[in-house]
Amino acid sequence: MAKKKTKFVCQECGYESAKWMGKCPGCQGWNTMIEEFEPSAKQASRSYVTSAATGSKPQSIISVKSETEARVSTTMTELDRVLGGGIVPGSLVLVGGDPGIGKSTLLLQLSSKLAETKQKVLYISGEESVKQTKLRSERLGVSSGDLYVLAETDIAFIERAIDEVKPTLVIIDSIQTVYQEDITSAPGSVAQVRECTAAFMRIAKTRGIAIFIVGHVTKQGSIAGPKLLEHMVDSVLYFEGERHHTYRILRAVKNRFGSTNEMGIFEMKETGLEEVLNPSEIFLEERSQGAAGSIVVASMEGTRPVLVELQALISPTSFGNPRRMATGVDHNRVSLLMAVLEKRVGLLLQNQDAYLNVAGGIRLDEPAIDLAIALSIASSFRNQITSPTDVAIGEVGLTGEIRRVSRIEQRVNEAAKLGFKRAIIPEKNLGGWTYPKDIDVIGVPTLERALEVGLGG
Question: Is position 388 annotated in a ligand binding site?
């Protein structure tokens, strides 16, 4: 019998080596190299996803008939938004998130919603028994004859169960517990995760069944296992939220059937997750009136404008190097904007500690929030109160100019809908659209002029 060959594979990034190393050259992680058996040529050839139409030939793109993908509605507005309008048959969706954030709760509720519309759903749990899943379903009020539950980790048995039930949707909770018997490495290893995901992709594409797989998250916040896993699936959804906040954010970072960076908001309650249809009101409901350092910004999350409160606290430092701390925004961007305020406006901030926070636990990463950050910093530094009915939108350049932003009409309309009376926007964004009647739109060319308008001098 031929001797089986082994290799060492990094469990964080998938880097392969013929010998063991303490530090992975790929991701610089320590003690991540695990010995695995190399699959035989027969096993390797079987792991690749093959086309459903064998023997197909290349054809001109002009001759290919375009068809609109028929989507299955989840009856959950927020989830449909993130998925791009519903579940696409034959799609493979990866759902990631921290332990205990509510991934299993969300997917069990999704299963219940689909089962209530007479769609067969197969929920496969590798971490809980059938009785444990039943107890959780009773707590969530889930009860339907079209929802099938299976506690199994062997992919051969899972494929057999899928062929027997013939469901519309399959949920795998989680991919780190599933294994292929042919592969000698342990469940959750790079080889097992990669090969099992490829097998589920083959099942989804050849049978036209939508499959949701749950992926654990590492300490760095990325999906555990090789980055290849995210490239293999059709959509990647991240379920985010703070343990001390009741709100959870479902964010699409990859979607072959819809827009990326789309966001859905849920509230965790005793009876499960409830949709938040108007998140702007939720984020602004606890806003304090008459406090310096607070301003509201209209940010775009995918196709949806969301109004959130930005808070800044500027205080004299007692150290040689002032502190720059930010929650919900990039702290490097905060340091850059403070340098612009000091150089172009004349605010002496080099001996001041700066603390910034986005209320509600949401994270903002678009340039349109620059003006709001600058206004909140200047407001706290000068101890001048901003108007509670003002909203600020704009990107700040290094020379102090206010640059145009995208989708200004949607942002201002959302602000007007929530009762804001004045919008401070880039001057270049003033033309080409109709202003709402109930809000005063002011265009500012520079940061200095924006401070005059926002702080009254």
Answer: no
